[in-house]
Each structure stands twice: as structure tokens, then as C-alpha cells.
Design goal:
The chain is mainly alpha-helical. Helix content is 74%, strand content 0%. It is built from 13 helices and no strands. Helix 5 packs across helix 6, helix 5 crosses helix 7 and helix 12 runs antiparallel to helix 13. The radius of gyration is 19 Å and the shape is globular.
Length: 323
């Protein structure tokens, strides 16, 4: 079904879900890791979400729907580890080191900038506006993390470095996805990516000696359930639907809105400070993302054969569950 063939109401509702859910997953992750080790909790999140999606698909289309070739299984597992285990796993570790949820969302929002750099290194020739956007984004990153008055930025260097590494991993996975063998069914792909990521993160949790200290409170359980049901299932379903029913330029707006939602929720719920550096640096980062995504949309909009690549740029940073 082509964009514009459904009513505005369903599109607006799906877009609202993506705005709110994917903007709030960073807060939910913070609430979980306050009581539960990050790798183990996020591994359990992905395993449960993947199992639920696989069971639903099997009920709707039979177990044969989940059958893969060895190449497809390897491709789905590779991207699941790269996008979710390294990406999301490192994000939760970075937050454990003290990076606020709003800042985390802003750093993850730079994924389109890193994809632009990967494309350049791969021999592509990005538009001048895209390269300008990358430069502006690096300035925004510097404003966020470099020391300010008093000699301190207020952000833990190790935590920021881990989250930037996570966004680089997400970006590489998004860039390389068109070159990887995957199932044609996007929901089957998501299920196997979630399962592979969950297994990898659970093994990493055991290998690093993570331990659960004490009982888990109701707030952490609630946040965990929210991540599984809303972050990894409902949010992804709404997004996948939007890619088939709404213009890409409209879907791309989630890249700008999610960090704003994350900063606002972090400030209201966890009293995370909105400093002048965060406000200025965050605004610069968002402007850079607007430049890169809009320039890429105009370029790819004239090339029908590249439509899938642009969907990858927009989706894979969060397509299997956000943050």
C-alpha cells in the first residue's frame, strides 16, 4: 500500500506512538538498571520480546513462517548482535556510568551522521549539505561533552565514550544491512535479531560476572515490562507500519522528536538537570540530524532503487526496540 492511501488518523496515531515510546525507552532503561545489571536485564528484555514475536508469528502463519536458510539465520544473528547487543547493551552500560537518559538519546540521535561517514568511507559521495550536517553534529557533541566553566562538563567521560561507541555500532549495522542476507519478512527478521541479541547479552552478563543484589522493586519491573511490550513490540510494529503507509520525510521526524521527549521525561521524572550546555549542544545536534536526514531524503527521493537504503538509515537505529 502506498503512502497516502490510508487516513491521516491512523498515520498520526502510529507516529505519536513512535514519538512517545522511542523517546521514553531511555528513561525506562535508566529505571531498570538502577536495580538490575544492564547486560543481564537488557538480554532478558530481548529474549522475551523475541520469543513473544516469534510465538505470535507462528500462531498467525504457522511455524514454517519462522524457517530460515543458514545465510538468513547468520545475517539476522550478525545484525542482532551488532545493532542490539552492542548498540543497546553499550547504551545501558553507559547510562550505568552516569550519563543522563536525555543526553543518551541525543548521542544516539547522531546515528545518521555516522552513517553518512560510513557511506563516504565506502566510496559514496554525500551531498555537501550532509557533510555540513556532520560537521555541525561534531560541534554539538563537543558542546555536550567538553569541559565548560569550572573545568568540568558534568558528564562521565567513560559513559559518554561507551554510548558514542554504541551509536557507531548501530550506524555500522544500519549501513551494512543491505549487504547482508536477511529474511524477506521484516517481523521474522526482528524476532531473530532480538533472540540473537538477547543470547549474546546474557552470555556477556555471565562472562562479566554481573550479579543481582537484592529484590527487584515494582518500578524496575514496570519499566522492564514497558521495554518488552512497548519498546520492543508495539513501537517496532508502529514504525514498520509507518514505513509502508507514510512519506519517509514524515517518518524521519521521529529522529528529531525522540531526543526532545527523552530530555523532557528525564527532567520531569528523574530530575535530570537541563543545563545551558545540554540545551545548546542538544539543539546543535538536532539541527545537524535535520540537515543530514533531509539532504539524504531529497537525494534518495529521486532514486527509486535507493528507497530501501533510506529506510535503513531511518529505521535500524531503533527498528528492533529503540534505545
Amino acid at each position: 500500500m502506498s503512502p497516502g492511501s490510508v487516513g491521516r488518523g491512523p498515520v498520526a496515531f502510529a507516529l505519536f506512538l513512535v514519538y512517545v515510546i522511542w523517546g521514553s525507552v531511555y528513561l525506562a532503561i535508566r529505571l531498570v538498571i538502577e536495580e538490575v545489571p544492564p547486560l543481564g536485564s537488557m538480554g532478558a528484555r530481548f529474549l522475551l520480546a523475541g520469543a513473544l514475536i516469534a510465538a505470535f508469528l507462528a500462531c498467525r502463519g504457522g511455524w514454517g513462517r519462522l524457517r530460515l536458510t543458514w545465510r538468513e539465520a547468520a545475517g539476522a544473528a550478525f545484525l542482532g548482535v551488532l545493532l542490539l547487543a552492542c548498540g543497546n547493551g553499550l547504551t545501558s552500560v553507559g547510562q550505568l556510568h552516569g550519563v543522563p537518559s536525555g543526553v543518551t538519546a541525543l548521542l544516539i540521535a547522531m546515528v545518521p551522521l555516522w552513517i553518512c561517514l560510513y557511506r563516504t568511507l565506502g566510496g559514496d559521495r554525500p551531498r555537501v549539505l550532509e557533510l555540513v550536517g556532520v560537521g555541525v553534529g561534531l560541534i554539538g557533541l563537543a558542546v555536550l561533552v567538553l569541559p565548560h566553566r569550572g573545568g568540568q562538563s558534568g558528564l562521565p567521560v567513560i559513559g559518554v565514550a561507551v554510548i558514542v561507541l554504541s551509536s557507531l555500532s548501530w550506524s555500522f549495522g544500519s549501513w551494512i544491512k543491505p549487504r547482508v542476507w536477511l529474511p524477506r519478512d521484516v517481523y521474522v527478521t526482528a524476532a531473530y535479531q532480538l533472540l540473537a541479541a538477547g543470547a549474546a547479552m546474557s552470555l556477556a552478563s555471565v562472562a562479566t560476572g554481573e550479579r543481582l543484589d537484592g529484590a527487584i522493586g515494582s518500578r524496575a519491573w514496570g519499566a522492564f515490562g514497558y521495554l518488552v511490550v512497548f519498546g520492543s513490540i508495539i513501537g517496532f510494529t508502529a514504525y514498520a507500519w509507518l514505513l509502508h503507509h507514510a512519506p519517509l520525510s514524515l517518518v524521519a521526524t521521529h529522529t528529531y522528536v525522540n531526543p526532545v521527549v527523552a530530555v523532557a521525561l528525564g527532567s520531569v521524572v528523574l530530575s535530570e538537570p537541563v543545563t545551558p550546555a545540554l540545551a545548546i549542544g542538544g539543539a546543535i545536534v538536532l539541527v545537524s540530524v535535520v540537515l543530514v536526514v533531509s539532504a539524504h531524503a531529497r537525494t534518495r527521493g529521486r532514486e527509486d532503487s535507493s528507497a530501501a537504503e533510506f529506510k535503513v538509515l531511518l529505521s535500524d537505529q531503533k527498528a528492533s526496540g529503540g534505545g
